[in-house]
Amino acid sequence: MRAVFVYANQKAMPAFYRPLSNDIANSALQTARQIYASQGLMGSMCFRLKELYMLRTLILASVISATAFSAASAQNVEVIKQRKELFEAMGKAAKDPGKMMKQEIPFDKATVEAALDTFIEKTPKLPDLFPDDSKEGGKTEALPAIWQNKKDFTDRFTKLVADAKAAKGMIGDEFALMEKWPTVVGNCGGCHKKYREKKK
After folding, report:
1. Which of 57, 154, 161, 182 could form a disulfide with 127 if both were Cys (CB 3.0 to 4.6 A apart)?
2. CA distances from 72 to 66, 137, 184 (A)
3. Is the pLDDT at 51 greater than 70, yes or no?
4. Domains defined along the chain, listed by start
5. How far apart are CA 146 and CA 128, in angstroms?
6. Are 138 and 77 in contact (CB under 8 A)?
7. CB atoms within 10 A of CB 140
8. How far apart are the first and last CA of the chain?
9. Backbone φ, ψ for residue 39 (5° rounding)
10. What is the average pLDDT value for the chain, to the nearest integer?
11. What's 137's DSSP letter?
């Protein structure tokens, strides 16, 4: 009887789950035999075997679903990590020019130029880091609106690069910074407002 149930169940299972089905079946059937034999209930064994078979099927289905879900969640982590690293580098580069705008630190042309260079270098890499399979996981803050308005989203990166290039060499003092810098970083703020999850 056990051989029939194990064989029937394994025909429907992928090869890599069959050792698991054997373990569950052997353990459950052995326990059932011991209980029913000790109580003289072997006559009801066929009915109980059917119950055990159904239970085993449910357990295996849960294992398969959990494994599939885990694989789906993990597949996007690397690309999400890459884009987060780029955004973090750009945010770090913008910090000191932002402080200069608030007159918290003295104006420094080299620092501003370096920030613009970071925008020009990092930004073109970003559009390719938002494939359709990277909407969730990795603590991403990307909103679904990105994939619903992909062209608008990627066009914003193009504009950021163009504005950064236009500002490069034009910011020679704090007055020029006050005039040019908001145009550059305004691209970031507008994109965050529409496409990034609000921080809690």
Report:
1. 154
2. 10, 9, 37
3. no
4. 2-74 (no CATH), 77-195 (1.20.120.10)
5. 12
6. yes
7. 20
8. 59
9. -105, 10
10. 79
11. S
